[in-house]
Design brief:
CATH architecture of the largest domain: 2-Layer Sandwich
Largest sheet: 4 strands, antiparallel
Oligomer: single chain
CATH topology of the largest domain: Alpha-Beta Plaits
Strand content: 15-25%
CATH class of the largest domain: Alpha Beta
Shape: elongated
Distance between the termini: 12 Å
């Protein structure tokens, strides 16, 4: 990774303006050709430096006033299939796998968003019914303190 890659990562980790072509804006800002920006991003994705490029949803500022973490007990063999189904749901913004332990058997988590508690229940009903998930917890968000990406200006010195 050279200095240009680091500059691209720093810019991608910050606020990006809503534009028709944000990568052209990035190219202009870094005084590079668009094709070079796109190629470098592709190479960094292939190397695993960039997992994904996606917006951060501040769901508390949207019409989705009900937000709940769904924690599920799933068979390890079904984990990828169920996680894929969760990721396909537009009202689920985060999907995580964590190791379970004897006091907390839940291993798959999805952050769900809705305009009502019923919306959350429908998400749970859909995924649990489809995959025969019997054991789950629904944990509503009470308050959100911090939601940011890491500031790569300090991490990539």
């Amino acid at each position: 990774m050279d200095i240009i890659d680091k500059r691209i990562l720093i810019e991608l980790s910050g606020d990006i303006e809503l534009e028709v072509n944000p990568y052209q804006m990035l190219a202009n800002k870094l005084e590079l050709d668009l094709s070079e920006i796109l190629n470098r991003i592709k190479v960094m994705q292939e190397k695993g430096y960039i997992k994904r490029i996606a917006p951060i949803l501040y769901h508390q500022r949207t019409k989705y006033k009900y937000n709940a973490l769904i924690a599920m007990v799933v068979d390890e063999n079904d984990l990828d299939i169920i996680a894929d189904d969760l990721m396909k749901n537009p009202k689920v913004s985060h999907v995580y796998h964590r190791k379970e332990n004897p006091k907390w058997p839940y291993s798959l988590y999805g952050m769900s968003h809705g305009e009502s508690e019923n919306d959350i229940d429908l998400i749970i009903e859909e995924i649990c019914h489809k995959h025969n998930i019997i054991e789950y917890k629904k944990i509503y968000t009470v308050r959100e303190w911090k939601k940011t990406s890491p500031d790569l200006r300090y991490l990539l010195k």
